[in-house]
Amino acid sequence: MLADPVVFRDLAYVFVAAVVGGALAWRARQPLVLGYVLGGLLISPFTPGPAVSDVRTFEVFAEIGVVLLMFSIGIEFSLKDLLRVKWVALVGGPLGIALCIGLGLGVGAMLGWPPRQGMAVGVVVSIASTMVLARLLLDRGELHSRHGRLLIGTALVEDLAVVVLIVLMPALAALESSRLVAVGVALVKAGVILVPFLYLAVKITPHLLTRVARTQDQELFLLVALAVALGAAALTQALGLSLALGAFLAGLIISESDYAHETLARLLPLRDAFVALFFVTIGALIDPRALAAHLPLLCVMVALILVGKFVIRSAIVRVFGYPWSTAVLVGVGLTQIGEFSFVLVKVARGAGHVGHDVYNTTLAASLLTILVNAALVRAVNAWIGRVRLAPSRAPAPSVSGAGDRLRNHVVLAGFGRVGSAIGEALETFGLTHVVIESDPDVVKDLRARGIPCLFGDAAQRRHLEAAGVARAALVIVAIPDDQRVRLAVRTARSLNPAVPILARVHHREASDGLRGAGATEVIQPELEAGLTAIRHALGRLGLPKESLLAYLERLRDAIGGAGERARDAGRGLPEVREVTVGPQDEFADQSLREARLPERFGVTVVAIRRAEGEPSCRR
Questions:
Q1: Could you say which of 17, 313, 336, 402 would form a disulfide bridge with 369 (CB–CB 3.0 to 4.6 Å)?
Q2: Cα separation of 267 and 69, whole Å?
Q3: Environment class of residue 272 by beta-carbon count within 10 Å: exposed (0-12), middle (13-18) or buried (19+)?
């Protein structure tokens, strides 16, 4: 069977548009989602230039993107993230959605909309894009700040609420005629489908994934993960529910197993490709002429998102006892809509609650609000930082005044859990240090204590220059985000080639990159915790202290000591020995992984040669 060449031409248009739009967004430091949608607009049948012949063909691929996105959200969903912000997310999140729906109803009533349209618009504008929000916080190094935790916690609750809203959306007509039975039936169906899913999560899926993992075949593992996601989505659709609901529940199943991270790692490249296709398809569906014809509707929706959501979300955070600065940052961060709003408005259109005008306007409103939101977050964050710090009259009001006079001091980048402990030690021993921190409340407290500090992102060159890195005796980077840590280390090294730089990193894979960027020492919390547990455990068993410490040093060097080996290389050439292993030896017939020679003896195996002279290395 010969494939239709037009389909492949259109598919090439879609991915080229994704590449061009994504590259432009990256160069402009905007979310990639925005670039994808703009790329889709370039190949839209409604705009001049090359265009896809039938956009509807690619909506099927876009549905796969929604399934994979919801599947990955289910895998990543964690109650621990919610517990950090407690009630403001668990209660404030649904409360904000309810208030946005009420706002949509009220505005719709004033404008003469049908009640169903007002409710649907309220639902659509109530959900912010978690993907856009997380990317923006990550780029700014604010993912683990106070407002960052509140934003992510609220967004996670909104993601979970999307599942309920998708179920309820087709039954909005019942609310208008007071026939709530349809809503109850929808909820019962959702509850019934949860029972077998929970059974699968506990009894079947983990065993299946264990068997697949034992094959050590990456392709088979990916195929099984896709089968679980698509199969669950197809099952829920067959029962009258949504594809997104089944995919999300499938993700929750995987998240309960030991293979959640492995599944997500295999899935992410494929998910990102289909999600890019989804957003390009969304852009290709936008009709600029229809937007011009419904400009008042677009202005109303943008106002609901930028003004209405900001007031509602800021007020909720303030009611829960957080300061105004945090409330404003959270409110501004949520003034956008994204991928789930697209899904919800599509469901609303399919159910007949809104027309094509609202559907098209939602797509355009998402474009505008994502663009405006990125600029607002930057501007408001800087403004709040200046406002919060302006009243301070501490002995060290800023670094700029004392930065040129500081010599042989310590620059501490990040004052979170780890950074604050380091700062307390430096203060106890009377060591002069300068702190760079992106949380204005923390900076204000530090200045009140007379500690020189600078508000901003430690990965920015101008902040490191102002902190006096060029004249520092030591630089400590304790930022929680690995990417920002590497940028900060590279910039600090370029400013002072000789200064020792200590850096903390979460993931072992990132440690070599940090050393390459110029870090003198790399601290891995997981590795240090493991070594401490080993030291206590073996110490309780009465092993000689000298032997125990020697073993821990060898283990540290074997697991995370590439930097130590690099420094030791300058002390002399390594000694190379040939060791013969006989049948009676302990390591006979073992692989290198089983023998654990680097961990136990601190050696590096260069090659293995069999008795017959053939080189071999069985791992």
A1: 336
A2: 10
A3: middle
Region class of 528: left (phi > 0), else alpha (psi between -120 and 50), else beta: alpha
pTM score, whole prediction: 0.56
Q: Are 492 and 479 in contact (CB under 8 A)?
A: no
Amino acid found at 531? L
What does the DSSP 8-state code read for residue 473?
Answer: S
Coil vs helix vs strand at 142:
coil
Residue 347: closest CA among 232, 277, 243, 238: 243
Decide: helix, strand or coil at residue 295.
Answer: helix
In tens, the pLDDT along 324-375 reads 888 888 899 899 887 778 778 888 888 788 887 888 788 788 878 877 887 7
CA atoms of 103 and 114, how far apart (whole Å): 14
**Strands ordered across the beta sheet of 433-437:** 453-455, 433-437, 410-413, 474-477, 501-504, 521-523
Task: State the virtual CA torsion across 371, 377, 379, 384 in degrees, nearest 10.
Answer: 160
Domains of the chain: 5-386 (1.20.1530.20), 410-523 (3.40.50.720), 575-619 (no CATH)
